[in-house]
Amino acid sequence: MDLKKAKQLSLVLFFFLLPTVVFSQDTLKVKNVEAVLYTNNQAKQPLVVGLGGSEGGNAWTSDYWKKTREQFLAKGYAFLAIGYFGCKGTPKILDQIAIDEVYQAIATAKKYQKVDSNKIAVLGGSRGADLALLLGSYYPDIDLVIGMSASHAVFPGHTQHFTSSCWTFKGKELPFIPVNDQAVPFLMKRDLRGTFTAMMQDSLAEQKALIKVERINGPVLLLSADKDEMIPAVQMGEKMISRLKDSGFKYPFEQVVYQGSHTEPTKHFDKVFAFLESNFLKRR
Length: 284
Known about the structure:
This protein is of the alpha/beta class. Helix content is about 35%, strand content about 20%.
C-alpha cells in the first residue's frame, strides 16, 4: 500500500471511529405548552429543561441553539425544549402563564424510558430564568436551577395596561410588582432598566412578589451582566443570593457577573456545563 492510500485509509478510520451523537426527537402532548424532547442513545439520561425568554416561541428548538442543544446531548443529557407562549396551541402573549401547565411538560418527559426521573435540571434566560426559578421553588423534584439574566421577583404580564401577573399557579395569579408612578416616565422613554428599578422602589409590593428561591431543592446558579439594559440583573441576583444566605440554604449557589448586556450570560455555557458536571451529574 502506497503512502497516499495509507493516509486516505487512516482518515476514513479516524472519522469512522469518532463518537457520534444519535438522538431522537419527540413532541409531547401537553395543554397550552409546546414541548419537544431530545434524547441520545443512552439509558437513564439526566434531563435538562430549556426555557426561552420574552421573545416567545420555543427558542431551544431553533437552529440558533442547535449547536448548544447538541452539546447537551453529547454530554449525556436528555434535553426538553419548552415554549410557553407564542407557539401553536399556547398563549399568544406573556401574560398569566400557568406554571403548573409548564411543569406538566416536565412531568410527561419524566415518564420516558430513557430519562432519569431522579435528575431534573431547569435553565432559562430572561423571563425564562424567572420561570425556571419559580418552577424550582414550587416543585421539589427539580434538582438544580440555572437562571441567566434572572429577576428576583414577579412582574406584570406583557399587556398594554400591565395590570395582570406574568404567572399563575393553580388558577391564581402570583403577586407582582405593579407599574408605579415613578416608573411611568422611564416606561414612556422605553428605558426598561429604569422602569424596573423604579418599580422596585415599592418595597411592600416587592416583598409580596419575591420568588422564594430558598425553597429550591438543589443548587442554584445565576449568571448576570453588569450593563444589562433590560433589568438591574446584578442587583436582583444579589438580592437572591442574600435570601439564600439568610435562609441557611444547604445547597451550592453562586452568582457570576459578566461584563456586557442582557444577552451576555447566554454566551457562557462553559460555566453552565461545569456547574452541571459538579452539582448535578455527581449528585446522588
